[in-house]
Design a protein that fits this description.
Helix content: over 70%
Shape: rod-shaped
């Protein structure tokens, strides 16, 4: 086939507008440029495309209706109000989370303080028992004695009183 009879592929034809706008990569642009320099039919397609674009410039441009601007602005304001509502909801949620965290910290502190107070400030009954262990070990014997008068009478006896014996 002669080089002037080479036709553009569908992919190359789809890339013609991007080629004319300079949006293709270097490899794609180089490949298409080589094809355009060697093929007359490809050049004709590019020229037809350029003429089409020029003719489009001569067509009257459609005018947007006056309410188009108002509708667009009202839709933008509605979207902005939705964003404001989302920000409000997020703010309220954040405040609730902070309040809950503050309550949790306060309750935890109160529980910790109460535990510390009962642990270190409240008298421990087992500590007194440990202090008076000798009394606790001989409690049954002390109960058999009965009253303090009996112990005083024993204290007066010379057999039990070492100070008098000596």
């Amino acid at each position: 086939m002669a080089s002037d009879q080479l036709r553009l592929t569908t992919i190359e034809r789809a890339n013609l507008v991007a080629y004319l706008d300079g949006e293709l990569t270097e490899a794609e642009s180089g490949s298409l440029a080589a094809k355009l320099t060697s093929s007359i039919s490809a050049r004709r397609e590019v020229e037809a495309l350029e003429k089409t674009w020029e003719l489009l410039d001569h067509l009257p441009r459609p005018q947007a209706p006056p309410e188009f601007t108002e509708r667009t602005l009202s839709q933008a304001q509605a979207a902005a109000s939705l964003d404001d509502r989302l920000v409000d909801v997020a703010g309220k949620t954040a405040r609730r989370v902070l309040r809950a965290a503050a309550v949790i910290v306060a309750v935890s502190s109160a529980i910790g303080f109460s535990y510390a107070a009962t642990r270190w400030l409240w008298p421990d009954p087992s500590a007194r028992l440990a202090r008076d262990l000798t009394v606790a070990e001989h409690l049954d014997e002390f109960r058999e004695v009965g009253t303090f008068e009996f112990l005083k009478s024993l204290d007066d006896e010379p057999a039990f009183n070492e100070d008098v014996v000596k």
